[in-house]
Design a protein that fits this description.
The structure holds two protein chains of two kinds.
Chain A: H1 3-21, H2 25-45, H3 49-74, H4 89-113, H5 129-137, H6 141-169
Chain B: H1 2-6, H2 8-17, H3 22-59, H4 75-85, H5 96-112, H6 131-140, H7 142-152, H8 156-187, H9 192-199, E1 202-203, E2 206-207, H10 214-230, H11 242-245, H12 255-280, H13 296-317, H14 323-350, H15 356-379
Antiparallel strand pairs in B: 1-2
Helix pairs in contact in B: 3-12, 3-13, 4-12, 5-7, 5-12, 7-8, 8-10, 8-14, 10-12, 10-14, 12-13, 14-15
Chain lengths: ~170, ~400
Amino acid sequence: MGFVFYVIVALTLAGALAAVLLKNTVHCALALTVAFAGLALQFLELDAQFAGFAQILVYVGAVAILVVFAILLTRGSETPKDGVFSRTWLAGLAIAAAVFAVLGWAVLGSAQALPGPGGARTAPPTVTVLQIGNALMSRYVLPLEIVALLLTAALIGAVMVAMHEKAGTQ
Amino acid sequence: MFANLDQIFVLLKQWAVGWLPASWQAAAGVLLCVVAIICVFPGLFAITVLLERKGLGRMQNRYGPNRVGIFGILQPVADGIKSLTKEDLVPLSADAVVHFIAPVFLVVVVFMGYAVLPMGRNMTLVHLDAALLFYFAIGASTELSVFMAGWSSRNKYSLLGAMRAVAQMISYEVPLLMSSVAVVMITGSLSLDKIVAAQNQYTWGLPHWYIFTPWGFAGFAMFAIAATAETNRSPFDLPEGESELVAGYFTEYSGFKFAEFFLGEYVGMLSISGLGTTLFLGGWSSPLAVLGWVPSWFWFFAKIMLSMCVYIWMRGTLPRLRQDQLMNFAWKFVLPLTLLNLFVTALWRFMGDGWERWLVCSAILVLAYVVMGRTGMHRDHLGARRYRYAD
């Protein structure tokens, strides 16, 4: 947790704040990408290569592009001058705080779940990509398959929805 | 002596770094390697551009550049000076910040890919356990730069070009990754060093390159198609289709920013050729056991320059695809074949060392190729062209 950690934290927070505070939606999406990249760097800084690269590949490479496409294809990128304000911002704030609390609780609780005396105070285990691959293909193969099935179903569902719409307009 | 020649760059680096105090040596070594990469590949870019302009000229029955220097070999220098001295225009309505960041981001990202490519024996900058994953993660971020360029220009042609480019790059990224997974399945590692080491063996003087296996050949063909599309190269250069979109996503770029896009495109091509070489063509290993004395870096650079020549050749030969053909080709032909190739690779892995696996794997792939090609041809009515509106 040295100097690099704080630089990455500053980058991530700046990106996330900009994503919320900027007025232009495409700028927000690009700022969100900075936050994603900052998280990826954080994973790499913690020596979690697989998680870091997967974060870049999935979030910077795919999710950010998806967000940007969605913005451009739905309403046009021109936003009103005074920005977009939701009337239900209080509920949104509450939900965000609740999600953050649950995540924080889970992270803090995971220290006790680690094997060894004193929980997280022992040396962190070194996990290579090979071990992750082996675990995914042996112990966790069933959850992996279920997730794959779910994603395929979602993909087919999305295609069906799009096809239906197209048939309706013709 | 040949061993020294093979390691000449490594020895030079050690010699240069040796002058510094011990605590600086590691950082200085890395810095030196980075500088070397940043110098060598733009140099190759200049050579490639000249080769392309001369080669295309020959293919189109004209001379190509022949005025600057003897045989026009100083043309890249003239081009460089021209783009440095040209006025840098930013459209009034453009988003100036994003417009500026896009080309810089592209060049940075493209150069990062070289960090993990093994360019010769002991010549990898970063030895990552997940090098292939790193490469693809970095490669995926180039789409963002293309989008930023197209969107920030506030020009409909730029935006259309960017949308085309992003759609194309996303579509072809899937087969690109899938065809590389086959190599990972056989090698059992994501490390590019280990992938090269696995191919650097010889039987009867012939190398164990993956392209010389049925799944490797099919995988390489798919990889080459996807890589061409991924770098927006002809015949997949719709994002910059001059007849429709002026110049696509970099229409509004001039001067050095345009040069940055140009550099990014060619350095990206060199980089993905390097990856293809590493995955399927044995990386820095020599094509024959008897030629083992030739320095390893020579083979790497010879192979990527050969791929550049193929790129140029394809550009001079093939017509551009149409957008729907491009998408259909990706999702209905290349992707199913790469998925089948994964299955064939698994068969190859578990069928033992006999000759049966050669027969079975080749038969499945050839059959699938023929059946898919034939049915696709019939469904799309690729016979004589019928004109619906102009008749």
